[in-house]
Write a structure and sequence with these properties.
It contains 15 helices and ten strands. With 408 residues, it is α/β, with parallel strands linked by helices. 43% of the residues are buried.
Length: 408
């Protein structure tokens, strides 16, 4: 059972009573009459072949309050898309698959590219962005949740708790972030959040002072979770990165657009496990694994600080690295002691290897940040797309209908 602590920056919803999921869902069914709800599932085709997504779909088939489920499907050819249509057909809710590699959506992407509005990098950010545009176009929901498709510990309560704060018409929250402990097979996981983000934020606070943005980020218990929910109007104006900085980018955007009184986080699971990234993906042609992730996250935070008027120079990054490294080593000790008391395993050698890599990447991310002053890291907001191509969302909706109901 979690504590009931409120840190005063954003509201924290705890799991104090282990309220049955049936009771939560009964409330959500009532809420749906005034505030209909959608779910976005960004997915690779490969995830349809694993056990996690099969269980997720079986769980979702029992959810009574969703008006719509939108699946973004990446890396799928025609036969794989047809397989996906059959795979998701067991869902009783209205559902649509965005075949992002199909000719209809590719044609729309080319149109956006001609206007300089298309996402520049493939990946989760691009997938989520297109799904967000479709949710806005379909106009079936006023609240929307998003979670990953590789959660091996998934159950219905996770979604119910995630969407509850933004679905309740008596609450005034615009955005909600899910959090949980990262424990699996007797080990403490979540290395990037524990060993990069937290010590990096605290290093920056030590160097630049307690900036409101840094205090805000530090208030999230799991800033890198892929599970969040929001009112649909939020989707229209946020600009998100297309790389691994997606989660930090979303947090930065809602902080820019809304009072912290309208933002919250919720405990959605006692334990959570999904596909694990290796520290360095030696087989990838480009940088991958936690190596690439840490680089993109650091760049996202540097960019945000720059927009707040923080002066960052080449010399600054050496100070950031040194301060981060000392704080991160202390945090390793803290987490190790916590794990031992709870009978969990932590490989201190691999933890220190991760911190050494992350420290180098703080410098590398700084170099990239300074060397690319004209970089455009964000996907344009949907409000900008609407201004440039007023009928694009309508045509996207029609293209998705044709892909899902017609011949492909």
């Amino acid at each position: 059972m979690s504590d009931f602590y409120q840190n005063g920056i954003i509201t924290n919803f705890h799991n104090l009573t282990r309220r049955p999921v049936e009771a939560l869902e009964a409330d959500l069914v009532r809420f749906a009459r005034k505030r209909p709800m959608s779910l976005i599932l960004p997915s690779l085709f490969s995830e349809l072949e694993g056990p996690a997504l099969d269980n997720i779909v079986n769980c979702l088939a029992k959810v009574p309050y969703l008006s719509e489920i939108v699946i973004g499907l990446d890396r799928a050819d025609r036969e794989q898309f047809l397989f996906a249509r059959e795979f998701f057909s067991r869902l009783p809710q209205h559902h649509r698959i965005l075949w992002n590699d199909g000719p209809r959506l590719r044609a729309l992407d080319a149109e956006l590219e001609a206007e300089g509005l298309s996402p520049q990098e493939p990946g989760k950010g691009r997938n989520v962005w297109y799904c967000s545009g479709y949710v806005l176009a379909s106009a079936r929901a006023e609240a929307v949740a998003l979670h990953d498709c590789d959660i091996v510990t998934y159950d219905r309560e996770m979604l119910a708790r995630l969407i509850y704060p933004v679905a309740n018409p008596q609450f005034n929250y615009e955005f909600c972030k899910g959090y949980y402990s990262r424990i699996a097979e007797g080990k403490l996981n979540g290395r990037v959040s524990r060993l990069l983000v937290t010590p990096m934020i605290r290093a920056l606070k030590k160097i630049y002072g307690p900036l409101p943005y840094l205090e805000y980020l530090d208030s999230y218990r799991y800033p890198l979770s892929g599970e969040f929910s929001m009112r649909v109007d939020v989707l229209n104006d946020i600009r998100i990165p297309s790389d691994w900085g997606l989660e930090i980018g979303v947090l930065s955007e809602v902080h820019r657009n809304y009072s912290t009184k309208r933002l919250c986080q919720v405990d959605i699971a006692d334990a959570y496990d999904h596909k694990h990234q290796c520290l360095i993906d030696k087989e990838a042609e480009k940088r991958g694994g936690l190596d690439r992730m840490s680089l993109d996250i650091a760049k996202a935070i540097y960019r945000k600080l720059a927009t707040l008027g923080v002066q960052i120079s080449a010399e600054s990054f050496r100070t950031i690295k040194a301060t981060y490294y000392r704080i991160a080593l202390d945090i390793i000790e803290t987490y190790y002691n916590d794990a031992v008391m709870n009978g969990l395993k932590v490989d201190r050698h691999s933890e220190e290897q991760a911190v050494e890599l992350f420290a180098q990447n703080l410098m590398e991310a700084g170099r990239i940040f300074l060397d690319n002053p004209h970089d455009k890291p964000f996907i344009p907001s949907w409000s900008r797309v609407q201004a440039a191509i007023p009928d694009l969302q309508e045509r996207m909706h029609a293209a998705v209908e044709e892909d899902n109901l017609g011949n492909v």
